[in-house]
Amino acid sequence: REAIADETPSVNERRLLDNVSKRVRLWKEIAPYYSDQEYGDGKTAESRGTEAVLNALILVSHDARLGQLSDDARAAFDNMWALQQTTGEGRGAWRWLQFDLRPWEAGDSEYFGAALAALAVGIAPENYRVRSEIQSNLKLLSEYLDRQYSKQSLFNRLVLLWASTKWPSVIDLERQESIIREIRDKQREDGGWALSSLERTWKGASLRAYARSWIRQDGTIVERRSDGYATGLVTLILQQQGSASESVCLQRGLDWLERNQNKTGGWWPAYSLNKRRNPSSDIGRFMSDAATAYAVLALTEAKHH
Predict the structure, then answer these.
(1) Is 209 helix (H, G, I), strand (E, B) or coil?
(2) Contact 297, 235 (CB under 8 A)
(3) Those residues with Cβ within 8 angstroms of residue 269's Cβ, 6 or more apart along the chain or in another chain
(4) What distance in Å separates the CA atoms of residue 176 and residue 160, rounded to the nearest whole number?
(5) What are phi and psi of 268, to 5 degrees?
(6) CA 123 – CA 60 distance, rounded (Å)
(7) What Rg, from alpha-carbon coordinates, does the chain have?
(8) If you placed Cys at 213, which of 42, 104, 119, 200 could pair as Cys (CB 3.0 to 4.6 Å)?
(9) CB 73 within 8 A of CB 55
(10) DSSP 8-state class, residue 41
(11) Do residues 95 and 45 touch, judged by C-beta distance below 8 A?
């Protein structure tokens, strides 16, 4: 809204915030979006964990612009910390929805969720991060992000780099620089990035999982073209990270975004990693919606600079 000098929340923005706030206030009474009964064992816990992190991130992102932490955002954090795992391999993280859908709801997406939780903590106004009552939670979260780091795709580590722009100590400088070098190496000749190359990993992956990074569930080949989601996400994070040495790489990415907006519909292209989708269907538009959101965030950030 700032980029077009409109300070009034849109109807949809207000509706989204109101809906999230309502679910936070009624947290102990409402049903999860996905339950064990309808979707199989574990889905209630996965749904609760995922929603708790996203609710906190949405509300603190709004509060950060105002510089004041709302009661609803504080309650969302309380809900989130109450669901943090304290035992097992996932201790420090949250149960996360797994529907074998990359990059957000797959086997390694628990790390993605934990990185988003770290981002929420970093964004939160009023020095929320230094509060004594959450220090043990932050320690658990930091230890998880460090412990599981080496197994992650570049996509997951990229979200962690984003969190570090708001919470610097969540990742050390050497790892920050390593991620940036990898990002630079993955940039395509046209200046953009492809989500498939960020999401692909062989580290700790099964042969089936590695094959899936090249071939989708329906047997079609994963798109390798630059897309608006990957390019928008990378350029947004590089700007917030503030690495001057990457200015050429960054500018090429922003140029790609400027060149590749659909001039009729206003959106940016992106491609499912899971199946070939009809781009004009609701499910097909899901990726282009995400791409458009991040492209706008990146270009708005560039306008500020």
Answers:
(1) helix
(2) no
(3) 227, 228, 260, 262, 279, 288, 291
(4) 9
(5) -110, 150
(6) 7
(7) 19
(8) 200
(9) no
(10) T
(11) yes
For the segment 182-209, what is each residue's pLDDT rounded down to a tens digit? 999 999 999 999 999 999 765 555 666 6
Rounded to an integer, what distance in angstroms lies between the CA atom of residue 279 and that of residue 243?
35
Name the residue among 255, 277, 115 with its Cα closest to residue 193.
255
| CB-facing half-sphere around the CA of 240: CA atoms within 13 A | 25
Residue appearing with tokens 């309650």: 75
Write down the pTM of the prediction: 0.94
With a pLDDT cut of 90, the percent of the chain lying above it is: 82
Q: Which residues of 250-270 are buried (b: 16+ CB within 10 A; e: fewer)?
A: bebbbebbeebbeeeeebbbb
> Which of these, 168, 192, 162, 197, lies nearest to 180 by C-alpha position?
162
Cβ count near 149 (within 10 Å): 14
Neighbour count for residue 140 (Cβ, 10 Å): 18
For 213-259, the pLDDT digits (tens) are 678 888 888 889 999 999 999 999 999 998 765 689 999 999 999 99
Angstrom distance (rounded) from CA 285 to CA 276: 12
Angle between helices 154-164 and 228-241 (to 10 degrees): 30
Listed in sequence order, the residues at least 6 apart from 219 whose beta carbon sits closer than 8 Å to its beta carbon are none
Closest CA to 198 of 167, 229, 163: 229
The tokens for 229 are 């989601």
* CB 88, CB 45: distance < 8 Å: no
Using an 8 Å Cβ cutoff, are 141 and 117 in contact?
Answer: yes
Beta bridge partners of 31: none
